[in-house]
Amino acid sequence: RGPAGRGMAAAAFERRVLRRAAEHHYLRVRLELPDGGARPNAAQFKQLVVTALRELHGEVGAALPVDVLTYEEKTLSAILRVISSGFVKLWSALTLLGFYQNRRCAFRVLQTSPFLLALSGNSRELVLD
């Protein structure tokens, strides 16, 4: 007899495991700065990411391979790529960074995925004419 004695067969669940874990993880991030003052260009943004890693994880963290795939200076938004083994280190370092050029700042992690395509579009930001 099945669950609760009703004669129903128990639901069959199939477990699927990825054969190979993703090599990289992608993060869509936004840097929040107070109004006024200089905005970082692409090189300065990358340096800020490396600085965040160095402050929390030392030189080993600063050596973590992180790529800035896209960066929009207007919105201070970027898509970062990091090897999967360094994903948590990068996220924690960005979260705990508090200053840029002696001004308060904060990184906001908007999306993460092991698949770049998942970050290519956000329906919440879709503008319809």
Coarse shape:
globular
Q: Report the CATH C-level class of the domain at 25-32 and 42-113.
A: Alpha Beta
Largest sheet: 4 strands, antiparallel
CATH superfamily of the domain at 25-32 and 42-113: Ribonuclease P, Pop5 subunit
Structure commentary:
With 129 residues, this protein is of the alpha+beta class. The protein has a domain at 25-32 and 42-113: 2-Layer Sandwich (Alpha-Beta Plaits). Helix content is 24%, strand content 27%. It has 2 helices and 6 strands. Strands 2-3-1-6 form a 4-stranded antiparallel β-sheet, with helices on one face. It has a two-stranded antiparallel ribbon with strand order 4-5. Strand 4 and strand 5 (103-104) form a beta hairpin. Helix 1 (42-62) packs across helix 2. The N and C termini lie far apart (58 Å). One of its GO terms (molecular function) is ribonuclease P RNA binding.
Task: Compose a concise summary of this entry.
With 129 residues, this protein is an alpha+beta fold.
